[in-house]
Write a structure and sequence with these properties.
Layout: H1 2-20, E1 23-35, H2 44-55, E2 59-65, H3 68-81, E3 86-88, E4 107-113, E5 117-125, E6 132-139, E7 150-157, H4 164-181, E8 189-195, H5 204-209, E9 218-219, E10 260-265, E11 275-276, E12 282-283, H6 309-318, E13 324-330, H7 339-342, E14 345-347, E15 356-361, E16 370-375, E17 380-385, E18 391-395, E19 403-408, E20 416-419
Parallel strand pairs: 1-2, 7-8
Antiparallel strand pairs: 1-13, 2-4, 3-4, 5-6, 6-7, 8-10, 9-10, 11-13, 12-13, 14-15, 15-18, 16-17, 16-19, 19-20
Helix pairs in contact: 2-3, 2-6
């Protein structure tokens, strides 16, 4: 009888946890300053590694990424230092008309923890200057089939520089995004992260983003609206520049601008499925010290209790921008993946492939088995014998575009999804 009571008690605790669980997600956006082509500071990846290991984001969004090699280097750092579950979206070059500045080497990308989010799709929103990149993520929750929760993460880099002409170019870019979002369900969870290059909340491009007449209305979750440029009252949200010294690449002048943002759709302030955690928004590395105004972040005037000198040094040497971070929370319970399943094999790099799927086998005792690729109907479309190598390059060029699952013949191993 006592044993039965203990079992019932344990079941009640498990049910209660499922009903009232809260999962927290850490987000970071970072302007990478022409990574990896900017080489005035050697070994910049080491400084980025320190920053990522300090904050440990679940979603990492970037702009000013030059090429796929830089993206792969960042993914390797995330997998080595934070979690093997990290994945990236497919790197795409700018497709927008770039005759204005001919800067086709500044790209956006997203990295994410695949145990918490599933990349459903990615789309490009073309503008007159640079692309917006839209990544649709699904929460890897227990109820994802009956109550799927989608986060639409959009990453951007608006036209830089002051003056009415540049303001108008930024506005035109944002208007293209507004048009794109007009087709979304109005209750969509949307997040816009990027280097906006705006100088105040009254600039036309920013007003367009927060226009209450839009289908998707954005809000500043930290609620620090105003005229930011060289205004010491907003020093706590300044993100550029980390430097006053020239020769390191990028801009100088010290902290006096709020260029970098993460905005959310208004419903993410009040719903229960996926919502902003109050007071979690920060300019990472900014100690909110008034004396830091127009100083570089290594200066003693920028000291404080939130970010140590060691943290600020890594930020200083990597980029002229500070990252922006914030947290989201959900009442949905995440789908737990047993350790034995994740240790068997994994897809290397992105799970969105064109011609070749790279697979790493972690358990050599499974070498006598096969890998099977299934379509969404459960039909086997390809079988691959496993030899002695623990790294496989699987030709999937003959498969039709769509969603597939790859699984070992051992049914105790969780299948992995990839998209062609």
């Amino acid at each position: 009888m006592k044993k039965k009571i203990q079992i019932i008690s344990m079941l009640c605790m498990m049910i209660t946890h499922s009903l009232f669980s809260q999962e927290n997600f850490k987000l970071m956006f970072y302007n990478l300053l022409n990574f990896p082509l900017e080489t005035n500071v050697p070994n910049r990846i080491d400084y980025l590694e320190q920053t990522l290991n300090t904050y440990k984001p679940d979603i990492f969004m970037v702009c000013e990424l030059n090429n796929v090699y830089g993206g792969n280097a960042i993914l390797q750092v995330l997998q080595d230092r934070i979690s093997e579950d990290y994945r990236s979206a497919v790197f795409t070059s700018n497709t927008s008309d770039d005759e204005i500045g001919n800067q086709n080497d500044l790209q956006n990308l997203i990295f994410y923890d695949n145990s918490k989010f599933i990349l459903e799709s990615q789309h490009i929103v073309q503008t007159l200057y640079r692309d917006f990149n839209h990544y649709k993520l699904k929460l890897n929750s227990v109820n994802q089939n009956s109550n799927p929760v989608y986060l639409n993460a959009i990453v951007c880099h608006l036209k830089a520089s002051s003056g009415s002409n540049n303001e108008n170019l930024r506005l035109q870019m944002v208007q293209d995004l507004t048009q794109y979002l007009s087709t979304f369900p109005s209750d969509s969870y949307v997040m816009l992260a990027g280097d906006f290059n705006v100088y105040s909340a009254s600039e036309p491009a920013f007003l367009e983003l927060i226009d209450p007449n839009n289908n998707i209305v954005f809000v500043d979750p930290v609620d620090r609206m105003g005229s930011w440029h060289t205004n010491v009252d907003y020093v706590d949200v300044f993100t550029q520049s980390t430097r006053t010294q020239s020769g390191l690449g990028g801009s100088t002048g010290g902290l006096d601008d709020r260029f970098d943002f993460i905005l959310t759709s208004t419903n993410m302030l009040s719903n229960q499925d996926l919502y902003y955690v109050p007071n979690s928004y920060q300019a990472f590395g900014n100690n909110s010290n008034l004396n830091c105004f127009n100083n570089e972040i290594l200066d003693t005037a920028c000291a404080g209790t939130s970010f140590s000198l060691e943290v600020r040094e890594a930020l200083y040497y990597f980029s002229d921008h500070l990252p922006v971070v914030m947290e989201l929370e959900t009442n949905e319970a995440l789908l737990s993946i047993p350790t034995y399943q994740t240790e068997s094999f994994q897809i290397m790099g992105t799970n969105m492939v064109d011609t070749t799927l790279e697979v790493q086998i972690h358990n050599q005792s499974l070498s006598s088995n096969k890998l099977y690729i299934f379509n969404t109907l459960g039909q086997v479309v390809k079988s691959i014998p496993l030899g002695t190598s623990n790294r496989l390059s699987i030709d999937v060029s003959g498969l039709k575009n769509g969603i597939y699952y790859i699984r070992m013949s051992n049914t105790n191993v969780q299948p992995l999804k990839f998209i062609k």
